[in-house]
Amino acid sequence: MNTGILEFVTIFVLAAFVGNEVIGRVPSILHTPLMSGSNAIHGIVLVGTILIMGSAHGAVQITLAFFAVLLATLNIVGGFVVTDRMLEMFKSKPTERAARSADRDGADPDDGSGDTQ
């Protein structure tokens, strides 16, 4: 194994350990904003893979570039799906909103007249 490959493997292993420590210590309340930032980064990765695919020559390069575009796209879509599901958890249901609104206004949420008899 030559020195260049050994350096790349060392950097990859160190990045994996650092990434695991950083992500493992993020509180769950910050997960959604972190995911949004990650989606933006993966958007840049997707643009880069499309540019590289445009300059690929030969079947092997085109195939690898295609899989890179496919995986980057799946990562972005998955990130948006997870972020959307996380944000749905913080929304109240329409019946809960009506009940809170009625309690605040002093009206009965069922009759809609605003009378408090």
Give a written overview of the molecule.
This protein has a domain at 32-104. Helix content is 76%, strand content 0%. It has helices at 3-24, 31-54, 59-89, 94-105. Helix 2 (31-54) packs antiparallel against helix 3. The chain starts with a helix and ends in a 12-residue tail after the last helix.
Which structural traits does this protein have?
117 residues; 4 helices; 76% helix; elongated
Mean pLDDT: 79
Number of strands: 0
- Describe the sheet with the most strands: none
Count of DSSP helices? Answer: 4
Structural class: mainly alpha
> How much helix is in the residues?
over 70%
Beta-strand residue fraction: under 5%
Report, as a whole number of angstroms, the end-to-end distance: 85 Å
Unreliable runs, pLDDT <50, ≥5 residues?
none
Helix-strand topology string = HHHH
In brief, what are we looking at here?
With 117 residues, the chain is mainly alpha-helical. It contains four helices and no strands.
Topology summary:
Layout: H1 3-24, H2 31-54, H3 59-89, H4 94-105
Helix pairs in contact: 2-3
